[in-house]
Each structure stands twice: as structure tokens, then as C-alpha cells.
């Protein structure tokens, strides 16, 4: 479908080389399917915004228009509104970060911060180091600046320090230029795992020794279930870390308000890049968020979210233990995601059409790797469906996976096994819309 569309595009010869990697991601293709009400979607990472206090948000919007229109409806600073930046300092203090109000730049969601950092640092052919697997749309951004994303291995405690040393040594030997390490240390997307403090320190030390910046992306750190994750890497390293935060998961993604904290010189460039891209991040959304933070019990609200997501995580883990006891999965202590590993011969992408027919959706593991690995894995998001839907979704998923496994057993003696009819590589399945 996509190929056909490109062939019919009369302008296809004019696009910049950097657009070559801009194909619809698997996550994006899935949204069309997942939005059908009969499908239990364990695919997208949509926060459960219905748990927000509507009256308080309505009041914040009203005050924004009645009392602060002159600012909220006007262009603003390319660095973001000073009052909101002060409030963000309070949010970050919860994760051990002590910064000044001038150290941070408000962005249009942390996604835009990723774009700006990539724009500042990446030339074609540069290498970005990332966890394997890593956040799909960060990979897309880095690729769009013609960088190569090279994954470094993980276990259930995040990045493995020795693995990172080995990856860096190999790339050095190949003469590659590494610009930064992109990492999500707490409740990682997509694995849900968290790096212990000692590992964070070791990773920072490796980055220092190799003169590589650390891009610490932390959308989920405050959404812990049992105990808080270790403090952010930025809490102990100011010069070598660019830290990204967002209100998307602790408040609502619709505001598109995120931020970056960066060492002085980088921050100055980030502001210029922000101005070049959007003049100023949306003042209306910044004012509403600021009003909300001033009047609502936002810490209490984060606690409410924790309760909601904890219950959903428990529902997912319980259902997996019941329905798919022979498989293995990560056990997140916060955030939105569980990473499920299938037997080696199963292909989660090839299996997806069958899953959708059974009315359940997930994100295939390959979406989270730049190098095509992850076929026998999938990300399950527990943030959006209710616990009952999650249990029903896992029942449906088990039907699909057990069906595939039965086929494998049936054909085990007849030679190499392929899974159910698979889509040709690179062509989006028809349900992608
Ligand atoms: N980083 C990670 C790891 C994410 O999971 C997301 C959203 N899924 C983002 C960044 C972007 O978030 P936003 O732009 O809404 O702040």
C-alpha cells in the first residue's frame, strides 16, 4: 500500500534523503485497529486520562482565559514560561534533580525535545547508542537525521554496563562517531525494567570515559507502584547529561508540554532551535498546566494514577501467569509496559493479523529495534484498558499464541517450521488503514 502510494507521488524525486526512514511505524499503523471498540488494545501507550479531576482542569482553563489571556494567548519565550519552569523544578526535585530555572527549556512534549537534541547533534552517519529494545519514536527521530541507532544489550535491570563497553569498543575500532547514549532508566519503554543506582553510576562513568553525552529520557519515573526508582542520572551529573521530562504521563499528553534540562551551552542552542522550530512552545497549554499545578493536589493525582496503573499491571501479570505460564515476561514496578518473550520460532509481527482477528492488539517486538531483531517478542501496554479488558485481552492472546505453538508441535517432525501466513516484509497489513 505504502509502496504503491510512493510510486504514485509525483514529488518523490524531490524529497530530502533524510525522509527515507520516515515510514509509518508499527505503532502508528496499529492505532487505526486499536481504536475499534471491540479490540482489546494492549498496543498503544495511551495514559488513562479519564482518571483526571475534570472540574479542576476546567477551572484551570477558565482562569487561563479570564485572568491570563494577555499572556496565554500571546507568543511567549522560546525557553518557556518562567513560572511553569519554576514549577517543573518542584516536579524534578521528587527525583533528586536540583537545577535552576534557567537550566531548562520547555518543549512541545518530550518528543519535540528528542527532535531538537537530534537536530543539534546528529550528522549523517553518526551513531546513537540506545538500549535494545528502545522507544520506537526516538529511533524514528534519530534515523530521520540519518544517524544509525546501535543497540546495546539489556537484562531485567536495564542496560548491561559491560555490554555497553563492548559496543563502544567495537564501534571505536570501526572508526564510528558516537554522539550520545539514549536511555530510559526508569520503567523503560518498551521493557518496563529499571536500572538500579549502581548501574546508573557505572553507565555514567562509561559515558564520561568515552566522551559521550547521555540523553536521559524519563517520562515514567514518578509512576512507580511499590517503591520509587533510584534518582535520575541527572541528579548527580550536570555536565554530561541532557535530561528530558514531560507532563504527558503524570497529567495529560494532550497539552504537549515537556522539557529538557541541559548544560549551559547546549541549553542555549536548544532555545535557539526551539525558536527556529516553533517560535515559542504553546503558551495556552503552558498556562493551563501552570494553573493546574498551582491549585490542584498534583502529587495526590500522581498517586491516583499509580493506583490505577498498579491494578492494571497486576491484572496483566496475573492473566499472563494463568494463561501463558510457559512464557517469560518482565515484571515492571512502574510505568506502562510489559515485555513478553515468545518461543524462538514464533514471529509476533506475522502473528498480528491473527491476533487482530481474535480482537486483541499488541506491538510487535521488531518495532523497538532499528536492526530487525525482536521478532519473538512483543510489548504489552497495561495503561489504557480496564483490568477486566486486560484479562480478556490476554485470554484472546493466549488463544492465538497457543494456536501457533500447537502448529509448531504438529509440524515439529516435518522440517523447518514457518508460522501462519505472514505479510510480505515491509508491506503494511491491510488493517493498518
Ligand atoms: N519518551 C518516551 C520513552 C515515551 O514513551 C514517550 C511517549 N510514549 C515520549 C518520550 C514522548 O512523550 P511526549 O512527547 O508526550 O512527552
Could you characterize the architecture of this molecule?
The chain is an alpha/beta fold. Helices cover 42% and strands 14% of the residues. It contains 13 helices and 14 strands. Strands 2-9-8-7-6-3-4-5 form an 8-stranded mixed beta sheet, sandwiched between helices. A 4-stranded antiparallel beta sheet has the order 10-11-14-13. A two-stranded parallel ribbon has the order 1-12. Strand 3, helix 6 and strand 4 form a beta-alpha-beta unit. Helix 11 (298-323) runs parallel beside helix 13. It is globular, with a radius of gyration of 22 Å. The N and C termini lie close together (9 Å). 4'-deoxy-4'-aminopyridoxal-5'-phosphate (PMP) binds at residues 45, 109-111, 135, 184, 189, 217, 219, 246, 248, 253, 258.
Overall average pLDDT:
92
Give me the strand/helix succession: HHEHHEHEHEEHEHEEEHHHEEHEEEH
Largest sheet: 8 strands, mixed
Total DSSP helices: 13
Bound molecules: 4'-deoxy-4'-aminopyridoxal-5'-phosphate
Shape: globular
**Distance, first to last CA:** 9 Å
Major sheet strand order: 2-9-8-7-6-3-4-5
Structural class: alpha/beta
Low-pLDDT ranges: 421-433
